[in-house]
Amino acid sequence: MAYMDKVLRINLTTGKSTTEPLNKEWAREYLGGKGLSIKYLYEELKPGVDPLSANNKLILMTGPITGTLVPNSGKLAIAAKSPATGTILDCSIGGHFASELKFAGYDAVIIEGKADKPVYLYIEDDKVELRSAATLWGKGAHETEHLLYEELGDVITLAIGQAGENLLTMACISSELYRQAGRGGIGAVMGSKNLKAISVRGTGGIKIPDIRKFSAAMNKIKREDTMTDDNMWAYSDGTPMIVDLSQSTGILPTRNFQEGTFDEYRAINSDAVKSVLKAKKACFACPLACSNYVKMGKTEVEGPEYETLALCGSNCGIGDMEAVIEFNRLCDDHCLDTISAGNTVAFAMEMTEKGIHDFGIRFGEVEKYLTMPTLIATRQGVGADLALGVKKMAEKFGGRDFAMEIKGLEIPGYEPRGSWAMGLAYGTSDRGACHMRAWPAAVEAFGDIDPFTSEGKAELVIGMQDDNSVKFSAIWCDFWAISTERMAEILTLLLGREFTAAELKTTGERIYNLAHLFNEREGFDRKDDYLPARIYNEKLTTGFTAGRSLPKEEYEKMLSEYYKLRGWDENGKITAEKKKALNL
Amino acid sequence: MKITLQLKGPLKKYADGTELIKFDFDENNQTVSELLQRFKIPTSSVSFVQVNGLKKELNHPIKGGDKVTVNPRVAGG
After folding, report:
1. How far, in Å, CA of A233 to CA of A227, rounded?
2. Which residues pair with A294 in a beta bridge?
3. Fewer CB near the terminus (10 Å): N or C of chain B?
4. Cα dihedral sign for A242, A299, A254, A391?
5. From CA A437, how far away is CA A465, in angstroms rounded?
6. Which residues of chain A have a CB within 8 Å of the CB of B77?
7. Which of A231, A248, A481 lies nearest to residue B55, judging by beta carbons?
């Protein structure tokens, strides 16, 4: 029930597709989405596999709640070994692909091998075909989606742009034009397999034990627990609301994290977005509709989200909404992750201003800034250097002390010097610097917990990482502040067996530990859980965080406590006892 | 004394959908917390409050001319 009990496996080298039952034992322990895709990858990938080789696998994974009336259940997990970090990588993407895949009859698609020529995958229920993508290769994701829509009719598509084709480690996968599986170079994994797009149409349904009871319960939960004060910020403003919050608490990354406030923040805040808002949009089964569709001047985009406003706005010294919208649109079309692209451009700007290497662009230079997405995605001119991403640029040209990355993944839009637990969350994230494994900024910078102490932060971060591991495995959207108790209640109704909050907390812990075990097998340990030197050594000088750094000894203290509470050794390795307790 | 109250996002509903309200606030030594009570805004719905743009505690006293911004809780990121 609720699972389709069917996995589609495609071998691009042979062109063959097969189906197999979902591994129910694994589904019981890892649910779906993040957890289950990591389990398949852990079992099926050989250690040390080159992420851009035919031996890496790309997994599209739904969850038990996908395609049902459960609120905020529109997400799909896409996982592989990351070309950016060499860690495990699971991304989530909203829209309607996940539900459509389930309606076509599948819990998951596992893509192996490499096609000898560009292809796209077409799935219509039981019909599965690999078709030539010769006419699509070289095109942006937007044109690709339009052409496939014209050819195939009413389908939902995942596509890559030029960045994925050119194997950039900041390449994302796009769907419905403006939604992305953004991080860690997941788009390059598709590109490395010569897979331009995946289009799906499903005409089936999902079995629910007692549909009347389930439907009534979901409507009640939606009214009483989803469309509430805690969540309706997503509808009223969406993520742009966070610009003002970050500005006032001094954690808005500005000019490559040189400051935590931006004088021109009003040009890129939620009011500025709302002034050009044309429509609200939502994913499947979402009553919150967080997306803002905006038009300004000659450009339009669904967005910009907070991360884009922060990393491509203030962090590049760009206080110009129209420019940020256009930069966002170009990144989406070429399939560049805006967090990594914004960081990379900002790093190039600081390198140029400091005279370390001349990339020909400085903070706030709008015209040059707008040429960057195309140059980077196509590796042309200076874009060939920026396409390396921050870590490799620093290795090649210098600037290591202000290279804002962890494990090769560029840092999201929350300054750790004003939210110390955020630093720990970045350092211990399973895919490099990520704000989605845990987002303690919400309760530190934006809440009651002292952001400038290391006390109690390990426990805080672990709790969030484990809860989110369940959330992203079921799969719920991040924007519903759902409790573990509520998750257990819904899964019980849906799957016809009793779930408890305590059981789900263990499930979350198991999932996070499995992701860590994958990374451990790849050689990662404490030395990789670092923060950029700027965070340790440079004090911010403006706003609420003036005079603040996150001293290395305080960070190391949090990290040691984190390992201890996790049941890992001092070097960050999972102990035998912990493995046994979690059945790893 | 005049103060300005700004209710962000979904919190506008506590002032009939108005985001920015200017009104007389005569009580002496009133705190942010008491201001929230006056508008029946549950503190559980508030992430943090700014007074004149700066993050302040709920027991912060309000004075004439202040602008008090009340931010909703946010999830995700």
Report:
1. 10
2. A277, A301
3. N
4. positive
5. 5
6. 239, 242, 306, 412, 414, 435-436, 439, 441-442, 478
7. A248
Chain B CB contacts of A239 below 8 Å: 76-77
Pairing of strands A76-81, A119-124: unpaired
Min Cα distance B46 → chain A (Å) is 8
Residues of chain A with pLDDT under 50: none
Determine which helix (DSSP H) or strand (DSSP E) holds A101, and give its type and residue range: helix A97-103
CA A332 – CA A334 distance, rounded (Å): 6
pTM: 0.97
pLDDT digits (tens, 9 = 90+) for A238-263: 999 999 999 999 999 999 999 999 99
Task: Provide the pLDDT confidence category of residue B53 given band limits of 50, 70 and 90.
Answer: confident
Which pair of tokens denotes residue A11?
């071998």
ipTM for the complex shown: 0.90
pLDDT reading at B27 higher than 70? no
CA distances from A229 to A233, A242, A306, B11, B12 (A): 7, 16, 20, 7, 10
| Cβ contact B73–A477 (<8 Å) | no
**Which of B10, B54, B76 has its CB closest to that of A232?**
B10
Residues in A lying within 8 Å of B, measured between beta carbons: 229-237, 239, 241-242, 244-245, 248-249, 306, 412, 414, 435-436, 439, 441-442, 446-448, 477-481, 544
